[in-house]
Amino acid sequence: MSDMIRGYTDTIILAQLLRHDSYGYELNKAVAQASGGLLELKEATLYTTFRRLESAGCIRSYWGDETTGARRRYYAITELGRALYRENCADWQTFKTIIDTLLQGEEEP
Amino acid sequence: MSDMIRGYTDTIILAQLLRHDSYGYELNKAVAQASGGLLELKEATLYTTFRRLESAGCIRSYWGDETTGARRRYYAITELGRALYRENCADWQTFKTIIDTLLQGEEEP
DNA sequence: AAATATACATTGACAGGCGAGGTATCTCCG
DNA sequence: CGGAGATACCTCGCCTGTCAATGTATATTT
After folding, report:
1. For residue A106, pLDDT beyond 80
2. For the segment B92-106, what is each residue's pLDDT rounded down to a tens digit?
3. Which residue of B1, B31, B107 is in closest CB contact with A102?
4. What is the CATH number of the domain that holds B79?
């Protein structure tokens, strides 16, 4: 079930941008690589998430000054984005504990 | 963000039914209690999930023989349900590792 | 008689993920 | 030169799972 990913794309992207500014294509590769190829954001998801995060004021974008190759839109995390990231990480820790507890399905003796 | 829960209701329910047959209302309370009140399935979600799992052959239902009080529809996990549960648990372990890795957003030195 | 708890169920809205499709640039190979 | 493939961006529309709202019925408590 790949809708486990639901609700994490935001945080995953924010985590990457926390390291350094990045652009869609690169960020996507970084995520794929960091997850050992197990998880990759789909382009449609990636870009709609960028839009969402930007209009929420969690990231901001600017065009790179490539003199060659395709243009790149870079994204940077904002202070609001950092706050959201911290909150989401805390939520993740809590959630993890809850699910771990709930998934201890043990049969009757 | 409560759409972290997305994709786990199935597994949570299956985990409960693995312990013993149960019915909606009771199962719901059990989950709420087990999670320390931090997570509760909404009734609409609960019942639509029952429908989904049943038509997928992962659970089966039967009416309780209450002589008093409201009628109860009990659910039991099937072999298919057990298989799904095992699979989902494995997925959860994998997913947990991936997210933990990805959320290590460290700033540049 | 009314409120509360138990117990089940459906409808319709909403949001996020994503398949499919599209644009443009640059490099490499034959 | 032409075509394939990588880089790089973007959008439309569908699908699916969650959930607020609403409704039913029974039993107990006040």
Report:
1. no
2. 999 999 999 999 866
3. B31
4. 1.10.10.10
Residue A88 lies in a domain: yes
Q: Is residue A108 part of a domain?
A: no
Residues of A engaging B, defined by a Cβ cutoff of 8 Å:
1, 3-4, 6-8, 10-12, 14-20, 31, 34-36, 38-39, 85, 88-89, 91-92, 94-96, 98-99, 101-108
**B96 vs A contacts (CB less than 8 Å):** 96
Task: Please answer whether residues B101 and B83 qualify as being in contact, where contact means their C-beta atoms are separated by less than 8 angstroms.
Answer: no
Binding residues for strand D (Cβ < 7 Å): A 3, 23-26, 43-44, 47-48, 50-51, 69-74; B 2-3, 5-9, 41-45, 48-49, 52, 68-70
Q: DSSP 3-state assignment of A1?
A: coil
pLDDT, average across residues A67-91: 94
Residue B8 CB-half CA count within 13 A: 28
* Token couple for B1: 């963000």
Q: pLDDT for B32-61, tens place per residue?
A: 999 999 998 999 999 999 999 999 999 999
Does the residue B106 lie in any domain?
no
The number of domains in chain B is 1
- Closest Cα to residue A108, out of B21, B23, B28? B21
